[in-house]
Amino acid sequence: MPPLREPTFLILTALALRPLHGYGLITEVSELSDGRVTLRPGTLYGALDRLVDDRLVEADHEEVVDGRLRRYYRLTTPGVEALAAETERLQRNVEAASTRLRTRGWSPAARPATGGAV
């Protein structure tokens, strides 16, 4: 499986704990990314359609709230496996980068304020 794009990774991560509906996913993705990733409904539902087609996510249940239908989605077993594989891939990349940065003498406390070369 190719690497997941960040919004897809965050959607799967949001669904790792419990089923969520669209607005819940939008909110959870924003929180997980510290506000860096903001999903618009069209983007979210397009991503959910692809994830359903790929069998990584499936509809869990529906409920009517204030006269509007809410469809909840949940992670499937292949979705859990894809999220775990991507998490491991990202962790290996972080470890490799951290090792090289430490070799250069970098530490989070010594990070330059201007983004210049260390």
Automatic annotation (TrEMBL):
InterPro entries: Metal_resp_DNA-bind_regulator (IPR052509), Tscrpt_reg_PadR_N (IPR005149), WH-like_DNA-bd_sf (IPR036388), WH_DNA-bd_sf (IPR036390). Residues 11-84 form the Transcription regulator PadR N-terminal domain. It comes from the Bacteria. This is Transcriptional regulator PadR-like family protein. The lineage of its organism: Bacteria, Bacillati, Actinomycetota, Actinomycetes, Cryptosporangiales.
